[in-house]
Amino acid sequence: MEQSQLTQYLPVLMLGVLAVAFSFGMLVLSVILGKKGKRPPVKDTAYECGMVPVGESGTRLSIKFYLVAMLFILFDIEVVFLYPWAVVYRDMLKENGALILGSMVSFLVILFVGYVYAVRKQAFDWRS
């Protein structure tokens, strides 16, 4: 009894349709059954621990913030690639250890050059 590949995806399609229907159903029910009436403007103000908010709520962040975030992701992904390699390195060493070690060292050198470049460009300096 062979099933075609498309019929194997039928439960996934049904789950997707159910999720979309449930989401829109909840939105429609909240509009229908929700409390109607005019809300005072005080209800729509931001609440900051009992203090009156001062200034704009949507302040713009420095580009340094995004640069440091991307560098963090880059070096975090390095560890994600490095850890499994270190775990199975002993098994891989039997087959062709020099090639595997060379590829990992070249990977680390490229990342280290990127790190040195970021330090020289003062990407980690928050004060500027």
As for the number of domains, it is 1
Question: What does the radius of gyration come to?
Answer: 27 Å
Report the average pLDDT across residues.
Answer: 81
| Amino-to-carboxy terminus distance | 68 Å
Major beta sheet summary: none
Structure description:
It is built from 3 helices and no strands. The protein has 128 residues and is an all-alpha fold. It has a single domain, classed as Methane Monooxygenase Hydroxylase, Chain G, domain 1 (Up-down Bundle), CATH 1.20.58. The radius of gyration is 27 Å and the shape is flat.
Per-chain topology:
Elements: H1 5-8, H2 10-33, H3 63-120
Name the features.
single chain; mainly alpha; Methane Monooxygenase Hydroxylase, Chain G, domain 1; 3 helices; flat
Quick description:
With 128 residues, the chain is an all-alpha fold. Helix content is 67%, strand content 0%.
